[in-house]
Amino acid sequence: MSAVSAAARPFDAERVRGDFPILAQRVNGRPLVYLDSAASSQRPLAVLRAVERYETHHHSNVHRGVHTLSQAATEAFEGARARARRFLNARSTREIVFVRGATEGINLVAQSLARSRFGPGDEILISALEHHANIVPWQMVCAQTGCTLKVAPIDRRGEVDFERLSALLSARTRLVAMAHVSNALGTVLPIKRIVEAAHSCGALVLVDGAQAVPHTVVDVRELGCDFYAFSGHKLYGPTGIGVLYGREELLEEMPPWQGGGDMIRTVTFEKSTYNDLPWKFEAGTPNISGAVGLAAAMDYLEGLGIEALAAHEHRLLELATGELERMPGIEIIGTAAHKAAVLSFTMRGCHPHDLGTILDSEGVAIRTGHHCAMPVMTFFDVPATARASFGCYNTEADVRALVAALGKAREVFG
Ligand code: 7TS
Q1: Which member of 142, 147, 225, 372 is catalytic?
Q2: How far is ligand 1, taken at its centre, from the CA of residue 364, in Å?
């Protein structure tokens, strides 16, 4: 974390809203209240314009051309990589692999590292609050290699029980793969502590940072993790682009996971040799404008001040939590002491999908369902939850609109 105090910089969400043209529209005749940033955040003009500028003036394929546009595109793409390195405080751009998103980053580690190195007797440890993207790739690896998946339990508040997690770590644990922030519950996990415990057993650590990077300053060197994956579209950037950070020594030893153009140095029919890092892991033409947009999003987010933003979102979360706690029939799912920007809940007598539909008719966009975290729903014995999530453009007025719309739903289903 940077030393800059959050309180030192006031956060003006009303002004920030002006950067997001999509928010000015009306939905079902009502002003849009967007409370679904955990699924995908909206993009500010700075990102839209950076992508447009690239597409309008600089586009060509990267890495392969001597002509001016190809060089401009390569510069833009590799410049975005340098921006991502700074964003995460990684040591080198060799540690920054562009991927489609968090899902692809996790699958890359599963298929390249785990599939080639793990076997029967080895264990992968995840937690009970993971998104499917941090469960299924490991199940696939277990089926492919004979290694075993272990799951650290959560408690009724939605916190990972650190003692029980530690008890599952042993010399057999090869990898710990955990969310930094839960998308279904909002729980912030004590990643640094988990990294220290895992490393003391000789296990590597992959952090699924999809829900953390929009709300927290992430410094991979300070966290000490071996891999960190996230998606651009939850960070006010485009879809179809994300980053996998990996420690250089590890990436160097890992085999490529996809073959094709750009990831090779030489090809004959007998044998191919592979490119340097990070291109060894980037087969085929990449999402160039996506990377440009992501770099602009990082500029934008850091320009807002991530710590000031986090403090603002925390105020909204506290306000909304207090309001919903007072509403009869509402149960908040996920009451961890340390949460970020996510409020999951149920309303007695009303399926979350019906609730979502009523709220939509009031212009309030929330997400309903299992949030790709079915085991979390099973643990709390609910089929689904309603989830409001906050971003830099949300205001107290949005929280009031949510509460008012829930009041209307209460009248319908009362
Ligand atoms: N990990 C976490 C913690 C997530 O929240 C998500 C997406 C992913 C991984 C996968 O990200 P992707 O960009 O590769 O799809 N979470 C959500 C969500 O909560 N609602 O929609 C997508």
Answers
A1: 372
A2: 21
